[in-house]
Design goal:
Mean pLDDT: 88
Number of helices: 5
Order of helices and strands: HHEEHHH
CATH architecture of the largest domain: Orthogonal Bundle
Protein name: MerR family transcriptional regulator
Strand content: under 5%
Organism: Actinomadura fibrosa
Shape: elongated
Pfam families: MerR_1
Radius of gyration: 22 Å
Helix content: 55-70%
Strand order of the largest sheet: 1-2
InterPro entries: DNA-bd_dom_put_sf (IPR009061), MerR-type_HTH_dom (IPR000551), MerR_fam (IPR047057)
Keywords: DNA-binding
Number of domains: 2
Length: about 120
């Protein structure tokens, strides 16, 4: 499948797909006309790459993790990267806790502000 089709099906722009290829995250064959030709399996791999990037992993670590991937949502431990993955998970857990705390504070502030504000029909 050509790069435009991969882009359309994954929502990842062509420039980023070429970057993934330069980083060794995905591969393609070259057609006689020089166009990139990707296997169907690249779609799942791109989904995995995007998820790992969203988790904050750098491409150099993703390059090591991708060969250990068993499916779009499950990763087997990879030799030499388990500590880095655990560290990243700890960081994400802390960020999630921080966001939950901020969310609670925001809800509390909204509630208090609504309680202290006059009803809309009594405002000047």
């Amino acid at each position: 499948m050509l790069i435009g089709e991969v882009s359309r099906r994954t929502g990842v722009n062509e420039r980023l797909l070429r970057y993934y290829e330069r980083q060794g995250l995905i591969t393609s064959r070259r057609l006689p006309n020089g166009y990139r030709d990707y296997d169907e399996s690249v779609l799942e791999k791109i989904t995995q790459i995007r998820a790992l990037l969203a988790a904050g992993l750098p491409t150099r670590l993703i390059h090591q993790v991708i060969p250990c991937a068993n499916g779009p949502s499950s990763l087997a431990p990879c030799p030499g990267v388990l500590d880095a993955l655990r560290d990243r998970l700890t960081t994400l857990d802390q960020r999630a806790a921080d966001l939950a705390e901020a969310r609670t504070l925001l809800r509390r502030t909204i509630t208090r502000t609504e309680q202290q504000s006059p009803p809309p029909d009594l405002r000047p």
